[in-house]
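To whoever is on call:

I kicked off a structure prediction for a single chain this morning and the downstream step that reads the tokens threw a length-mismatch warning. I double-checked the sequence; it's 378 residues and nothing unusual in it as far as I can see. Pasting both halves so you can look.
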Amino acid sequence: MTMTHTLTPTADLATDIEDVARLLTPDGERIADPELDRWVADVDAATLRGLYRDMVLLRRIDTEGVALQRQGQLGLWPPCQGQEATQIGTARALRADDFAFPSYRETGVVYARGGKPADFVLAWRGEEHSTYNPYDINTATQQIIIGAQALHAVGYAMGVQRDGTDQVSVAYFGDGASSQGDVNEAMVFASSFRAPVVFVCTNNQWAISEPVTVQAKFPIAGRAPGFGIPSMRVDGNDVLACFAAMRWALDNARRGNGPAFIEAVTYRMGPHTTSDDPTRYRDKEEVDKWRRRDPIARVEALLRSRGEFDEAFVTSVEHDADALAAAVREAATTAKTRDPLTVLDNVYADPHSGLAEQREWFGAYLDGFAPAAEGVRR
């Protein structure tokens, strides 16, 4: 497979969502796709309900993260509302021993791979040892450097080749990262060495304040074949399509055919991070249009049409979401932050004069924030 659909240049990639493969319409209608259907032939009601539950819980984690940052418990938070189908659909297709390399926004990948409540928030507090052991959940720590994880994923995949196993690594990155040299260099190596790696480009339409039309005049999936990498462009708000596309890509890699590329066309409903104000560069009409394509609502509609969305299921999901949100909040609010000066502990095995000078300077700097004594001005 090279492309799911014929890709043509367009003046407005941000509004062109018809040139994608999908299995669920925005209204929740199940439609056929000749290339995706066989990859979800075994998906039953229980699997659909599981995907729905995962997306609801991810949205609650995200909502809690935003609230905790606004309340001063976290330094920053990168919202992922609207991108639940891309993250859950692709991550749930992975095998336990595959290895994921997420960017900072892939909270859902960490969740699907087995992340614990503290794993979602403590890194955003800047706590010591605040993230998970990558080998516990076969997921690298979330990468803040744009696109760097693509090279890490390819390096891991080349190691897998030499180990003689059929594991696959996955690099997650956004549309903005597709312009980074790291991502393009990673695709060169992956193609040249036929590395078992899947590139998942989450095209959420905005790289901070720059629209995708600044990154590309053709669909981003069209770049991969130039590297000799088969690609697919899917509806990133369709969890079934994302699940199917990832199964296709993983199968391609496991059979020794080398890398594959998925462009998931979705939308970042919130700000780039909580330090961003998207109303300065996005129209309300655009946001409202994408809100009507909500990935969770379309799975709910499908389940309702099949009689699989009863009150007991709704109550169960709500209970799980509440419990997870409470655990995330507890992890953030009960974290024990060390004294700032301890950042200089264990830098060297033996005492060092330069370190002593830094400790003295940093201590004086911290003292500058201490409450002034009565009658004394600082």
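Update from on-call: the warning came from a stale cache, not from the record. Cleared it. Sanity check on the structure: The first strand starts at residue 99 and ends at 101.
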